[in-house]
Design goal:
It is a single chain. By secondary structure, the chain is α/β, with parallel strands linked by helices. It has helices spanning 68-75, 91-107, 109-114, 145-154, 171-180, 194-203, 225-231, 248-258, 311-320, 326-333, 335-341; strands at 2-8, 14-20, 23-29, 38-42, 44-49, 51-52, 55-56, 79-87, 118-121, 159-164, 184-187, 207-208, 236-240, 262-265, 277-281, 285-289, 295-297, 300-304, 356-361, 367-374, 377-380. Strands 5-8-9-10-11-12-13-14 form an 8-stranded parallel β-sheet, with helices on both faces. It has a 7-stranded mixed β-sheet with strand order 3-2-1-4-19-20-21, covered by helices on one side. α2 packs parallel to α4 and α9 runs antiparallel to α10. It is globular and about 60 Å long. The relative contact order is 0.14. The structure holds zinc ion (ZN). Zinc ion binds at residues 121, 133, 188-189, 210, 214. Zinc ion is lined by residues 121, 133, 188-189, 210, 214. It comes from Algoriphagus aestuariicola.
Length: 387
C-alpha cells in the first residue's frame, strides 16, 4: 500500500490518500502538520471544447470513434469531463454532428463518464460582424424550437447547454422552453440591447459565454452589452484565460464583479494540444500555432484563429499571474461549472464520487499533473501492463 499526503485545493486541509493496486482505498484527514508535497481536488470540467489534439467535433468523421481521442488527450491534462461543443452550421450538419457524438457515447461507458452532455453554440446568435466571431453568417438565424428538438433527438437528449443571443424576436419563449427542459441557457455572441439581456435573465438565462470575446472591436462607452451582462447578478460568466483572448486587467475586473460566479472554459479548437507550426484549418484557413500557444492567422498575429489551450493551462495562467488563489482557480475549473450545469448531482461535489486530480506545484506556481483517478481508479500515468 502506498500513502500520499496531499493538501485539498478546496478546503486546504491535509489528507492521506491510500493507494492499493492502482486504486484509491481511502482518503482521510491527516494530522500531519508539515506542508504536503502534493495538492489534490476534483478533476477539471470544461464546458466548451470544439476539438483537441488534431480531432474536431465539428467535422464529419470517417469513424466516429476517432472523437474518443479527445477524452483521452484531455484526461492526461486533468480535464476528466468536458462538453463537446457544436457551433453554427446548417440544420442538417448540426444533426449529423450530434448524431456521431451520440454514437460515441453509446459505444463505451468510458465516454459517458467523461462527456456528461453537449454544448450547442449557435446558430441562434447575432449575425453582426464582431459579435458573431468566426461563426458562418449564412447559417445564423432566429431561435427555432422545432429545429432544437430535432437536434436534441439526434443528440440522444444530451444537449445540456446552449449559447444564444436574446436579440432575436421569440428569444424569451425559446429560453423558457430550454429552461423547462433542464437545459442551461447562456448569452453569447450577442449584440442584444440592455432590456433584452434583462428579459433573457428573467426568462432563465444563467451564463455568459466567453465574456469579453465574440464582441465588437469598438463599442459605445455605454450602454453596451458588456456592462449589461456584468450588471446582471444572476448571470455567471465563463472566460478564456489563455493570455491572448483577454488582457489580465479585464480578467481582474470580471473576477471582482462576478466573484464566485466566474468560471473557466478553454473553447479549444482541434489544433489545441498540437506541436507549434503552420497548419491548414477547416475554419480560418492558413493558421500558425506559436510556441506560446497562440493560434492566429498566418502572417497576422493580431487575428486569433481560436483558442489552443486546455483548462489546466488556463488555471496555470491565473496562478502564474497571481490573478486568483489556487482554491479559486481550481473551483473555476471544476465545481463551479458542475454546480451550474448539474446542480442536483452529488457525484462531482463529494470526494467519494468525483474524479480526482493530484498535482505538484512548481516554483512559478504552475500545476503539473502527478496522478489522475477516475472512479478512484488511477488513469494517469498509465501503468505498464503486467504481461
Ligand atoms: Zn464562441
Amino acid at each position: 500500500m502506498e500513502k500520499i499526503v496531499a493538501q485539498s485545493a478546496l478546503d486546504q486541509k491535509t489528507y492521506e490518500i491510500c493507494l492499493e493496486g492502482g486504486r484509491i482505498g481511502a482518503i482521510q484527514v491527516s494530522s500531519l502538520e508539515d506542508k504536503p508535497d502534493f495538492i489534490f481536488g476534483p478533476g477539471f470540467f470544461d464546458i466548451q471544447v470544439n476539438g483537441y489534439g488534431g480531432v474536431d467535433y465539428n467535422l464529419l468523421q470517417s469513424d466516429y470513434l476517432n472523437l474518443g481521442q479527445i477524452s483521452s488527450a484531455l484526461e492526461k491534462c486533468g480535464v476528466t469531463r468536458h462538453l463537446p461543443t457544436i457551433i453554427t452550421n446548417s440544420k442538417e450538419a448540426i444533426g449529423v454532428l450530434f448524431g456521431q457524438l451520440a454514437l460515441l457515447l453509446e459505444s463505451a461507458p468510458v465516454y459517458r463518464e467523461s462527456i456528461p452532455g453537449f454544448h450547442l453554440e449557435g446558430p441562434f446568435i447575432s449575425p453582426e460582424d464582431g459579435p458573431r466571431g468566426a461563426h458562418s453568417k449564412e447559417f445564423i438565424c432566429a431561435p427555432n424550437w422545432e429545429w432544437f428538438q430535432f437536434w436534441q433527438e439526434k443528440a440522444g437528449g444530451m444537449i445540456k447547454l446552449i449559447t444564444l443571443s436574446p436579440e432575436w424576436e421569440g428569444s424569451l419563449r425559446f429560453i423558457e422552453k430550454c429552461v423547462d427542459a433542464g437545459i442551461t441557457v447562456s448569452i453569447g455572441h450577442t449584440n442584444a440591447a440592455h432590456v433584452q439581456i434583462k428579459d433573457a435573465v428573467k426568462a432563465g438565462a444563467r451564463l455568459c459565454t466567453h465574456l469579453g470575446n465574440g464582441a465588437h472591436g469598438v463599442l459605445p462607452r455605454h450602454p453596451n452589452y458588456l456592462w449589461s451582462q456584468l450588471a446582471e447578478k444572476a448571470l455567471h460568466a465563463s472566460i478564456i484565460a489563455d493570455g491572448f483572448h483577454l488582457p489580465k486587467e479585464v480578467i481582474q475586473v470580471f473576477h471582482q464583479v462576478k466573484k464566485e460566479k466566474i468560471l473557466l472554459v478553454s473553447d479549444s479548437v482541434a489544433l489545441a494540444g498540437m506541436p507549434a507550426g503552420d497548419y491548414d484549418a477547416p475554419v480560418g484557413g492558413k493558421v500558425t500555432l506559436s510556441e506560446k500557444g497562440k493560434l492566429h492567422l498566418q502572417g497576422n498575429p493580431n487575428l486569433l484563429a481560436g483558442s489552443a489551450m486546455n483548462l489546466l493551462q488556463g488555471v496555470n495562467f491565473l496562478l502564474r499571474n497571481k490573478l486568483t488563489s489556487i482554491q479559486e482557480a481550481w473551483e473555476m475549473a471544476s465545481v463551479r461549472p458542475s454546480q451550474l450545469l448539474f446542480p442536483n448531482s452529488q457525484a462531482w461535489n463529494s470526494l467519494e464520487k468525483c474524479d480526482l486530480l493530484l498535482v505538484k506545484q512548481e516554483e512559478n506556481s504552475e500545476l503539473v499533473p502527478f496522478k489522475i483517478f477516475k472512479n478512484w481508479k488511477e488513469v494517469f500515468p498509465k501503468r505498464p501492463s503486467k504481461s
